[in-house]
Amino acid sequence: MGACVFVASGLSFDVDRYLRTSPFRAVSVFRKGEIPGKELTTRPDSGFVVLVGESKELEQIPLALEFLVRHQRDFRTLRQVGVDNMLLDFGVERTGKLQESFYLPPELIARLGQLGFGLIFSSLQLPQG
Fold it and tell me: H or E element: which one contains 9?
């Protein structure tokens, strides 16, 4: 099981102000100057994370495409209010195989490019047993 999330951030982005009237429901918010997790440096940016969908890796693709189409106008607004970076992060579960690959259809790659999005694959090795 994996999850796909949308992340928006910016060096001069007022995340709290934006989220008050935003169509997005953030599952996580981070602010400039905070010290995240075990890191020793402060965050240079502010932003938020939205869950696009939880499902098996291949089922995340249609969910991501639908999300990108549905929020196309919202992404333009985000750029206007200080967001410098938008990306989709596909969470994938490592199964311990020697090689694993994930197919991204051209429609998704094209849409990400048109919107100026980055792409990340985050992997998680679950404990055995």
Answer: strand 2-10
